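Appendix B. Chain record.
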Amino acid sequence: MQDYLQQVRDRLINYRNLFNQELTESELAEISFLAEKLDKCAIAIAVFGMVSRGKSSLINALLGQKLGETGSTHGTTKDIAVYAWDIPSPPTHLPKGDGRKKIQLRLIDTQGIDEVGGEVRGAIALEAAKQADLILFVIAGDMTRLEQEAIADLQKSYKPILLIFNKTDLYPECDRLVIHQALQNEEMRQLISPQEIVLTSVEPKPVKVRIQYSDGRDSQEIWEQPKPDIQDLKERILGLLNTEGKELLAVNVLRSLLEIQNTVTHRYVQKLQASTAIASLVFITEAIGVLISPLRWVDGLISGGVTGLFVIWVIGRYPSQNKYLWLLLTVAIACLSGGLGINTAVTGYIQIVGLGLSLLFLFKSLITDIEQSHASGKLGAKTLITTIIQSVPEGSILRRFQNN
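Structure tokens predicted for this chain:
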């Protein structure tokens, strides 16, 4: 079994060290937070849903106490609170060094999705999704169009989702089965697989019970609040963490690193596109070399050397999938500069035009290569994400994202 957590941590630290000067303070802080998350084996579970679906009651039931009696670990905002979920026997298979590290579970409470204008794209909801490693999406019956759209939007964050069909005690068994089957239709299977649907009743309706007294007093009827029916959900969450918790944590940290790599590369590409002065200087240097050099091989040597330095400068520390191609193009440009026959004024001008066009093509191709290669290579997040997802068994909750 690969120690993916250590591989991810190494990738985080090495990327930070290599690109330290190009990372903003917030990006450096994010990388430090992600490294700490790995060290603590901290898995965050965000609870989403519309108002009155039993979202807060679900958190109460999982925590085993009222939210008002629980202290949040990272402070509470108006819309998001994070709570430590301390369960008696959490999974302990996640390694750290040579030992075994206990998972630290966190529950993220969010406002109802219909409280942010009906769009989960709201910054608050998306921030919660970004922090989460697993999402519990709570419904309480037939799914509405808004809820379907919200799940589709949440999946853009590439986070595994468990669909929680709550308040099942309010439905006769026949109705409950009909709703459950509807949640498994072809349209819903595009969003949630049947294995990712869990039925709960986190706040069952009170039931009337008769109390018999042993001292001869008359019996009486009282209303009793049943315990929350969340055992299946607990087993599903803990089973998921036991079988693929390490991979889940590793992939989600890598997703955050990938977002940083996307941003840093985008800034660098914009910088390159604005660096027309350097590209112009390279062209002028090669043009002067062609005009003043007495020998063709000197033309080629100047063009090849200057173009090679230009390629090295453009790529810099960024990964490239086509390094050998750029080397061949550099040689081709050198041959173009020095191999067009007798040195005449006309030939020289033709060479200069050819150099200009080849440099323009090379520059644009290099930028495209950097954009496409930013997540590959030894420090690329996407290559390791693919490796991890391919390593999990068929039917794993992570397998849904193998083509993303």
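Further analysis of this model is presented in Appendix C.
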